[in-house]
UniProtKB/TrEMBL annotation:
<dbReference type="InterPro" id="IPR027417">
    <property type="entry name" value="P-loop_NTPase"/>
</dbReference>
<keyword id="KW-0067">ATP-binding</keyword>
<dbReference type="GO" id="GO:0005886">
    <property type="term" value="C:plasma membrane"/>
</dbReference>
<keyword id="KW-0813">Transport</keyword>
<dbReference type="InterPro" id="IPR017871">
    <property type="entry name" value="ABC_transporter-like_CS"/>
</dbReference>
<feature type="domain" description="ABC transporter">
    <location>
        <begin position="3"/>
        <end position="234"/>
    </location>
</feature>
<dbReference type="InterPro" id="IPR003439">
    <property type="entry name" value="ABC_transporter-like_ATP-bd"/>
</dbReference>
<dbReference type="InterPro" id="IPR003593">
    <property type="entry name" value="AAA+_ATPase"/>
</dbReference>
<dbReference type="GO" id="GO:0016887">
    <property type="term" value="F:ATP hydrolysis activity"/>
</dbReference>
<protein>
    <submittedName>
        <fullName>Putative ABC transport system ATP-binding protein</fullName>
    </submittedName>
</protein>
<dbReference type="InterPro" id="IPR017911">
    <property type="entry name" value="MacB-like_ATP-bd"/>
</dbReference>
<dbReference type="GO" id="GO:0098796">
    <property type="term" value="C:membrane protein complex"/>
</dbReference>
<dbReference type="InterPro" id="IPR015854">
    <property type="entry name" value="ABC_transpr_LolD-like"/>
</dbReference>
<dbReference type="GO" id="GO:0005524">
    <property type="term" value="F:ATP binding"/>
</dbReference>
<dbReference type="Pfam" id="PF00005">
    <property type="entry name" value="ABC_tran"/>
</dbReference>
<dbReference type="GO" id="GO:0022857">
    <property type="term" value="F:transmembrane transporter activity"/>
</dbReference>
<keyword id="KW-0547">Nucleotide-binding</keyword>
Amino acid sequence: MIVKLENINKVYGESGTETSVPALNNVSLSVNEGEYVAIMGPSGSGKSTLMNVIGCLDKPTSGVYYFGDKDVLKMKDRQLSDLRLNSIGFVFQSFYLMNEENAIENVALPLSYAGVPKRERERRAVEALTRVGLADRVKFRPDQLSGGQKQRVAIARAIVNNPKVLLADEPTGALDQKSGAAIMELFQKLNDEGTTIIMITHDANIASHAKKTYRIVDGQLFHGLEEDKHEENN
């Protein structure tokens, strides 16, 4: 088990007051190493909050979260930072690339934070770019790349540290259909190679590429037909 959430709640504002906003309601989720999981939901459903909790970018109000054998909610800020840097790769809808830097320099950034020597950073960055099909674009800057190629650079940056989990938030949201399909093929390749993927999306077609799909509705997480039964009972 690489990710285990138990009874996670997240409330923004002071709980129990008129200004409090519940975002996650008693969410439990278990993800094994090597799994490919999609979490679907519309805007405002709580899916981004859930991603932030899984990615150790935000702490829940209550509940239990284990990342491997680590009790995340008992970790200090520096420990959480190290966990994010070394064990979680992030892919966002917006690519968050540095426009003045080439692909190698963008991909090598996490390695720089980790104190990896420059020559080794460059070697591993080229290796990651090759894995995502950009061996012939390693010296290109973002303004010289297409949207799909930019997302591939972002994915290379996410995997350059060989993270235990790749966490993707709407990874095809800024892409056309063809580029989005190519990114999904790449995700499948990475998963086949053993990368654990947790993907957040509002698109059922994108979610269908995962091997296990959940839906989040009003901060509650449902697996398979459980969500449909919930809707039928309301």
